User: Fold these one by one.
Assistant:
Number 1:
Amino acid sequence: MNQRTLTPYEINHLQKHGFSKPLDSIGEQPVEYITGHAEFCGLDFLVNPSVLIPRLESEKIVHFAVDYINRQNLAHPAVADIGTGSGCLGLSVAAYLIKQNTPYTIYLSDISALAIKLAKENAGRILRSPENLFFQESNLLENYPHIKFDIILANLPYIPSNNIATLPESVKDFEPVSALDGGPGGTQTINRLLTQIPQYLSDRGIVIIEIDDTHDLNSFSFPQKLQASIERDLFDVPRFLIINQKE
Ligand SMILES: C[S@@+](CC[C@H](N)C(=O)[O-])C[C@H]1O[C@@H](n2cnc3c(N)ncnc32)[C@H](O)[C@@H]1O
């Protein structure tokens, strides 16, 4: 493998986790898979090659969710994190709500049993009191109980299949393709979720879904009862579908 020049962030990350000597032959392997750690919303998540490394831009999903809970004065919000991976979205929401003493119920689900195992481990390490968290192996909402959620978060695979080969080696050769490949056009999994949403969203509820920057509202099929808009991420790129029930 070719040796690469590490960025200051990568050197710092390796040192912080006890890797002080130069590493041989790491090729394009992400440093987070070497140390087994990734920071998200200021929290230290365990990661391994069965889950995506949480991305900085996804933190905005957590901030949207907590702001919405506070603006709507939701006293005990029910939250679903679909495609939870390391658990970064749902567990970060839980961490913020614990800090402000807001009780919650949070479901974290993934189609991958290995992801659920790691998300559970992260809950035990990160949260003071990992209560009212329910972990569910589930294809989208299939295995969910029939309850109405105030907040549905989803960062599902959304890269168009044809674009996978063009991703950086550090992504396409190391991160799980099942976390990346959104089928033709990249909208297949998200469109399937959209058909399930009306059954599971409370009247005042909101859905926040991360999308590819090549997508716009016309890329998706929204059930009649729902209305949607697109928000930009911290790099000013269109990145999130914000959905609620029509009035
Ligand atoms: C892009 S990763 C996001 C992981 C994490 N939420 C994050 O923000 O870093 C997508 C996740 O969705 C899961 N996934 C893929 N298809 C799914 C499906 N049909 N139902 C539930 N989860 C799915 C993958 O296993 C993967 O963990």
Note: Residues 1-35 form one domain.
Number 2:
Amino acid sequence: MPPRPFGRLRAKLGRTPRLIEPDKVFDAETLETNLLLADVGAAIAAELVAAAEKAAGRGGDAAVTAALRDNLENILAPFSQPLLLDDAAQPFVILVTGINGSGKTTTIAKLAHRLRAEGNSVMLAACDTFRAAAVEQLQVWGERGNVPVIAQRSGSDPAAVAFDAWQAARARNVDVLIVDTAGRLHTQGHLMDELAKIRRVLGRKDAAAPHETLLVLDGTTGRNALAQARQFTASVRVSGLIITKLDGSAKGGAVVAIARELALPVRYLGLGEGIEDLTPFDAQSFASALLGLGERDAA
Ligand SMILES: Nc1nc2c(ncn2[C@@H]2O[C@H](COP(=O)(O)OP(=O)(O)OP(=O)(O)O)[C@@H](O)[C@H]2O)c(=O)[nH]1
Ligand SMILES: [Mg+2]
């Protein structure tokens, strides 16, 4: 039996340094170090340490743990909004963007798998016509997951592929069309224009499309890459985030820092390279998992 989502999240975040040490007396300095090692960033670390110190004065270690959990939940709550499909959209169009290698194509395969399991028909548009192997990579995932992929040869106009794919999805009554795009930086003007053109073409077909624009971010993203992501969101209307690679060298606290910095809903987390390694983001579960606690409802 596959592990329950919470257990899986907790296990994957297990490589993140422990924030609180169960049998040790609370110590603000250790907590601050642990928070920084977990990548929450200096500002959030300071906030959480202040809350923990206040709680320690009131009621010992249990109060500290509760205060950390409550504060983390409060910080994350505004960014905990699941991706909801609009049944009226036909197809519901998800545009997937991000810098090179952040995990876009892999995430699309996982998302397609999940949406199909939830009862939706899904189609993929191979709009990364820039990198030679990109179309093939998406097609391999499509074949494995039995998801149709609309593609043209490498080098063709991505907006034309988006146009074709939308028409095919509409003609075949597909529920969700997911559009893969080439990795790009906000500084690459021609590539940003290309993204705008994809949006325009889709918008001409359906004024509400794309219904969701996801920015896929590698969780190992440092301060510099986070600043780049902020500029990216300033020029592309991003509606949600997916943070990947939290199973590897990325630390779970990065999710807190990224959500706060970009002030956008975190829709899913990437927890590995396998098709099942995508989990919806939920503030309560995430706070508990990051602190190494049990699930709130089960507590
Ligand atoms: N460990 C781990 N690896 C991941 C995850 N998501 C993606 N990867 C790996 O990251 C690498 C890049 O993934 P892609 O999906 O090709 O990234 P991309 O953003 O489409 O890359 P470009 O199209 O070149 O911009 C691959 O080796 C993936 O297997 C994840 O959640 N965990
Ligand atoms: Mg790709």
Note: The longest helix spans residues 42-76.
